[in-house]
Amino acid sequence: MPTKKPQGTEDLIASGERTYQQLMNLAYEVFGTYGYEPIETPLFERIDLFVRGIGESTDVVGKEMFHVLASEPYRRLSAEGTQPDAKHHLALRPEGTASVVRAVIEHNLLPQGGTPVKLMYAGPMFRAERPQRGRLREFHQFGVECLGATAPSADAEVIIMLMRFFGRAGIPRDSIRLLINSMGDDACRPAYRESVSAYMRAHADELCDDCKRRIETNPLRAFDCKNPDCRAVMHSAPLISDALCDGCSEHYAAVKGYLDRAGITYEEDPRLVRGLDYYTNTVFEVQVIDGLGAQNAIGGGGRYDKLMESLGGKSTPGLGFAIGYERLVLALEAAGVPLGEGGGIQAYVAKVDSSCDAAAFQVMQALRDAGIRADCDHQGRSLKSQFKVAGKSGAAAVVVCGPDELAAGEVTVRAMDTHEEQRVAFGQVPQAVSALIGK
Ligand code: AMP
What we know:
It is a single chain. The chain is α+β, with helices and mostly antiparallel strands. The protein is built from 16 helices and 16 strands. It has helices at 15-32, 47-54, 59-62, 71-80, 97-106, 152-169, 189-202, 209-217, 228-235, 246-261, 307-310, 325-334, 357-369, 383-393, 403-407, 429-437, and strands at residues 37-38, 44-46, 67-68, 90-92, 117-126, 138-147, 176-182, 267-268, 280-288, 297-303, 318-324, 347-351, 374-376, 397-401, 410-415, 421-425. The strands form three sheets. It has an eight-stranded mixed β-sheet, with helices on both faces. Strands 13-12-14-15-16 form a five-stranded mixed β-sheet, with helices on both faces. A three-stranded antiparallel β-sheet has the order 2-4-3. α1 (15-32) runs antiparallel to α6. The protein is elongated.
């Protein structure tokens, strides 16, 4: 039925949407203290941006992308089988990094010799995955990208910032773990990758079909395979920690030094490879220890020193992370953190009869001008029924406008919890209501 939302999507309504806004604001507040500026990029981009940026052999690009075509290229594809040219072949963004890097190149946000550009974003991402708890087809991320910084202090800074956000959001530190690893660079990763391929080739019989294919296309992704046989094989595969070149070892040691001095505890996981092709050197992931099952990663990221160049920009180091909003909410709910508070009306303006409509309207304007969330009846309900509505609404105060009170230039203000009533001069209503709602 067209009245059902597509599989793997969610409607965020009232407190649900408020939770999203509040956590996004918190993310922007925390990231802002580290010098990040907001950016918003289109929800769809040319498909080749993601193919080149994220990597053809990744699941995200190979299996999970939503292709977008305008009606004419779509008609030609379905009627004549004519493939759309790259310019007209679009995709819903599966992640934010490629788009942000594209924008940095397009707008030359990082001129030669410029200081690093730090950008933060929030919004929906789209991946055609099999939906389950914590895994959606449209989900939301809060992310940052820092371009132009080479030093290990930059890696440590983004990791510390990520942990700081989770702390501020209310995730108990002992309910999550921070995993870190180095994935090497052009100097050491090719040989390491080859050693993993060779190892997998020798164990090909024991691997799933996907991992058999990965031997040639993307062997490191096999570390992420959930198949128990593949996991057993990959458990004994060569480790990147034994294969890092001197430069990568030094960088990694320096990142750990900064984390240690900042009092950030972490676990080193030499099998942490992360799903996207563009990572080099430091990678990290934050996982919820209990309760989220296989979808336990609530955020992750790393360094991607080759991405900008591979998208046609000049060679520029970069790093960033993304937080998964929906999984963050699951983790906050599990921790008993109240979410989405601060909604609903605070004052209800009730009218004894229709002769009071105009005055009630005026009272309501005054309440709203004072920043109080107020509402009244627009359906001609009886006073009794208005009180019922007020009770259900959760309003802390009801302002009763009756002909007698109005004749004296007053209204009655009633506290909903104690039922105490007071007569208040017309001009003093916002103050009296503020006192009741503790504003
Ligand atoms: P990634 O862009 O794959 O590094 O993912 C970053 C974060 O986004 C993950 O740690 C998850 O929290 C979240 N995430 C990724 N894919 C999904 C999905 N399909 N549904 C919900 N959250 C997701």
